[in-house]
Amino acid sequence: MEVAEVLPDFADAFAFEEFNRMQREALPALLESTENVVASAPTASGKTALAELAICKALADGGTALFIAPLRALTNEKEDDWDRFEELEYSVYVVTGERELNPRRARRADILVMTPEKLDSATRKHDSRRYDFVTNVDVCVIDEVHLLDADKRGSVLEVAISRLRRLCGPRIVALSATMPNVDDVAAWLDAPAETTFEFGDEYRPVDLTAGVKTYTHGENSFADKYRRLYRALDLAEPHLREDGQALVFVSSRQDTVRAAQKARDELTERDVPMAVVRGEFHDVDFHSEKDDLENDTLRKSVTDGVAFHHAGLSKTDRDFVEKWFKAGAIELLFSTSTLAWGVNLPARCVVIRDTKYHDPLEGDVDMSPLDVLQMLGRAGRPGYDDVGYGWVVCDGADAEKYRRLLAEGKEIESRLAESLEIHLNAEIAMGTITQLDDVMEWLETTFYYVRGQTKPEAYGFGDLRERVRNCLEELVDRGFVETDETLAIEATPRGVLASKYYLDLETAATFADLADRVSNGAVLETEDILEAVAGAAEFESVSARQDERDAINAVLVGQETPELAAGQRKVLAILCSTAASGQPPADLRSDAWVIKRNATRLLSALGAFLDRLASPHAANLARRVEARVENGVSADAVGLTAIDGVGAGRASKLSKEGLSTPADIVDAGVPGLVDAGLAAGVADRVYEGAQSLPAVEIEWGTFPETIVAGENDVREVTIRNVGEPARVGICVTVNGVEMTATSSYLRETETVPVAVFGADADTLEFAISVAFPEEPLEPTVEYRRVDVLE
Hints:
Number of strands: 25
Strand content: 15-25%
Largest sheet: 7 strands, parallel
Shape: globular
Mean pLDDT: 90
Helix content: 40-55%
Structural class: alpha/beta
């Protein structure tokens, strides 16, 4: 059955001309029905085409399609792959946390591509103008729906899909690798039997032989990697000698490079004949294009028929590697698990060298069973191999676990119970749940509820209502939710903020407690902010390796942090050094990027807590600390980062020229910026950016210089905004004691009454401070001295 025959208007959107057997059987359900569809099929059997069929039907009907990709890296790949839709004049728009959202483009998109986390965040804010596009979805395609069983991420996918269905009722098309309980997923999504498919191994394009191989575990984890590598090469070598190809999965990007380098030497030592080395690969493009690789190590490696692939490579280099592996120039490829979820790049032999990986936020964790099965599913190259071979290399203690996984597969379970409080709080904050009965109605929309009906004892469903009541009481006791005499349920400000900023509830409680202390008069310092973030529950599993301890102690010398665990001290050291000098010490850089990215989100959330529960001045300090960590700039130059187009490098350059604030930029003008080393065009943009920021002048008027003891006088001070309108906090103190504090949206002027009174003191020092809670600008502070006369 040819694509052009079935979908003449969309034939160019597909990368092939004919549908395979599996696709033909699912085609009527996708194109001739409007029912929800659930399809489980072996890896590499052509599931992507099912997604594209569902998308084509939605587009043909004038609707909008949403594609949920399991990994952020895969959203970028889909954007590239679906240029085919762009050529048919259908727009594709990717929405992830790493990209600046353009709501207008999102509303106009024909195909949206998101991760589960971004969908969860967007649906929580669906009633805002920024995210209202998410309620205009006609079909939602869930790629790899077995992600439901993933630790932490699974519950996010589950609640986001349940919420999306409640918001706009889209058609759901859920695709998965082989899973034994596909009927449970179908029951959750209300997919009838006629549109539920369980394609077995007979639909695999190549038969699979899979097994487990053990290695002798030593005391040194670094040496163990090489023991596993040699075991992997033992398994791959017979296939390489027969002109087959091998794909070896390792735990990290760095390991792909190291393993490829060591494998090149080992293959030479073993005298394994590689086609490129033997001169038997005569593709002219390969020999000319290999010099175009951007990665020097990769360029050297491919000349030996060995390569590595990970998301940190440039797209150009990844494309070359994929192209050459498919062509046979590369016969041994080392990769991270991302490749298993994305590009269809099968090999005769697949070896999983590492079953554990280091997560900067979680420490050393086991690879999920879903990842293992997904990777092994890449074994066997259609049209070239009759059989694919897949091997798991592991310690003897884990061997039986993996043998059982390969023999029995893995039923998909719900992970919602593990984070029920967080998601329940989010639904209350959104107003979905206003009473106890609403909680039960919400739960009935989840996979958790369906799975609990199948396995009531395992899920503890005998006392479900009591468990829900206890969960609600816990939220009330911790200040996230409040109830009244009618048992109505409503989120408190801390509950709303916890949901809005996607926080662990322990972290939200810590932030709220800090805000309460500040509100009650505690002085907030930069160190308090950094320690609150470093101590967040999101970082509680971070580990500090022995070789990192000296670097941590050197950064935090003299800083007592008894409440922080070793891993959280590592987080604090990374944040302090980044804010002070732009980057952490070399020994702390391996995990720094992930930690910094999460910390900036938490700093933004802490700023919101301080703004809502403490004061605009406290929020402004948090905003400045956030900008310092994000941009790696000093405290005196952080205000420059408020200017569009000024990042770490440019802020540092301007600061060295004596231009440390936006006001300095305005005073210098374009000529002064050019003198400071900026190109004329850049100077124009920076100057305009500085002028677009808020800026205040404090006009004291006829403020007295003296007052007689016992007398009182009230004067008015004018706060004038000579820049763009913005929210401000205005604080008046006398001799360091706060007299008044107000918050307003300052367009032009604000008048502040200041009481001058003859007190016991000989001198009164009045200070007026104006802070911008949403901008990393230093507060404007001015002083006036009043002498008290007898």
